[in-house]
Design goal:
mainly beta; 2 helices
């Protein structure tokens, strides 16, 4: 009898221990699913413009966002990247004419203290809006890759700032400086670092060994200005595809070999391949300032694409669909939302490009190149306009619903056209660890977006 009771007690204790273990596992999983998230490259992980963190405030405080730190820096358009406790950014100090010094900086994520900085000479001769570097640093493990506005490509040790390897793309590969300078952020794919180079022969796009800088492959002839598009990888037709958007065509390549899968002609004026192509299932949406939108239908059985529809207008003023400047649109269900050529925030139908509604509320001012950036967070969107304001909004076919708005940063960059506020802020912020990181030509700032203000 005593043995039976003891046996029952032992079984009961075992069950309790097992239940406790499972409870602990569930708690760990729960913590893991709500843990902080880094922003290691342009538009966040995967370049998707999606922020997955929870515990974010519902509305901005009436007194404004809580500043956690601010650090002086110089000129630049580059948004920050955030990874493993560090914030990476680049800037530019002019010396004579369009010549000056570029820098790569690593800052402590908690304090904004500069951990290391590395500088090199830069020449922006021939570049329009030559106020600083454009390409967001790309972080991959213990390395960060930086593309300078004058064609310098550098790989740094994230902890020490030591230069692991570097290249001057114009000198080494005959690269042609775009009207807008080098503005394409390097893309890490496996052991490869994929870059828009604009070199010869047949080196419009190149893949380098990310550890050594050794060339792996090159692809596509240069037919003119190579533009400023960001390399992105999608999966369609059962195949991983590297997308490159040149001012003459949209191209899909094998990211491992550089082999071309398909091409679609799409002529873009003034090399304004700025907004990143957006995939939604079998749809691929591309849009530009002068030439408007084109929607491609991706083949579901093989890597291929055909034109589903194309905008009818090539005017920057008489726009029939969505003529984006710098803001990458979002596809939400059957609708596309984005900022058009003169700051009109629009909703169009994904199936045919038909306009559903538009509002000027997001950007306030109807003028050439008025723009901003859009990031999805759950069932809502964070949008920053070029007046330095940040908004939380919900988007639907019924209209634009603003939840909250606050002033985030002072615009400091000359837009080179007459504007209400004189200056603009054309910077894509980083959303990481329940904070937002942004910069202008004077400082980089970290604000709390956490519901508890931390």
């Amino acid at each position: 009898m005593k043995r039976t009771c003891a046996s029952r007690r032992a079984k009961r204790a075992k069950k309790i221990a097992s239940a406790s273990l499972w409870l602990a596992v569930l708690l760990v999983v729960g913590i893991a699913t709500t843990r902080a998230e880094d922003w290691p490259e342009f538009r966040g992980k995967g370049r998707l413009g999606v922020w997955n963190e929870t515990g974010i405030l519902d509305k901005f405080p009436e007194t404004g966002l809580k500043v956690l730190w601010r650090t002086p820096i110089k000129n630049g358009y580059t948004g920050p990247s955030v990874a493993d406790g560090r914030v990476f950014v680049t800037d530019f100090s002019p010396t004579v004419g369009k010549r000056g010094v570029e820098r790569a900086l690593a800052l402590d994520e908690k304090t904004g203290r500069i951990l290391w900085a590395h500088e090199w000479p830069a020449d922006y001769s021939g570049v329009s809006w030559a106020y600083g570097p454009r390409a967001t640093p790309t972080v991959d493990g213990d390395r960060v890759y930086v593309a300078g506005g004058g064609g310098d490509l550098l790989a740094f040790d994230v902890k020490t700032g030591a230069v692991l390897w570097q290249k001057q793309l114009m000198k080494e590969y005959g690269g042609q400086l775009s009207t807008w300078g080098y503005a394409s952020a390097p893309l890490v794919d496996g052991e490869r670092l994929i870059c828009l180079v604009g070199g010869e022969p047949n080196a419009r796009v190149m893949a380098f060994d990310k550890k050594t800088g050794k060339e792996i492959w090159r692809a596509l002839p240069v037919t003119g200005d190579s533009g400023v598009s960001q390399p992105t990888i999608i999966t369609a037709g059962g195949t991983r595809q590297l997308l490159m958007w040149d001012p003459s065509e949209i191209v899909s390549l094998d990211p491992v070999t550089g082999k071309v899968h398909w091409k679609q002609p799409f002529k873009v004026n003034a090399s304004m391949t700025v907004a990143t192509p957006v995939q939604s299932g079998a749809l691929l949406f591309v849009t530009t300032f002068y030439n408007g939108p084109v929607m491609l239908k991706l083949d579901e059985s093989k890597p291929d694409a055909t034109v589903l529809w194309k905008g009818k207008s090539e005017s920057e003023i008489q726009t029939d669909g969505l003529h984006a400047v710098i803001a990458t649109p979002v596809i939400d269900g059957d609708y596309i939302y984005g900022i058009c050529s003169y700051g009109q925030f629009r909703c169009i139908r994904a199936k045919n490009g038909e306009r559903v509604w538009e509002t000027q509320d997001v950007t306030r001012e109807r003028r050439r190149w008025v723009s901003g950036f859009i990031v999805r967070q759950g069932n809502r969107y964070f949008i920053n306009n070029d007046r330095g304001e940040l908004m939380i909004a919900k988007l639907s076919p019924e209209g634009y619903q603003e939840i909250s708005r606050t002033q985030m940063i002072k615009p400091t960059t000359p837009p080179e056209n007459r504007r209400e506020l004189t200056y603009v802020n054309w910077v894509h912020p980083a959303y990481a660890n329940r904070h937002i990181y942004t910069r202008n030509d004077e400082e980089i700032i970290c604000y709390s977006l956490a519901a508890d203000g931390t």
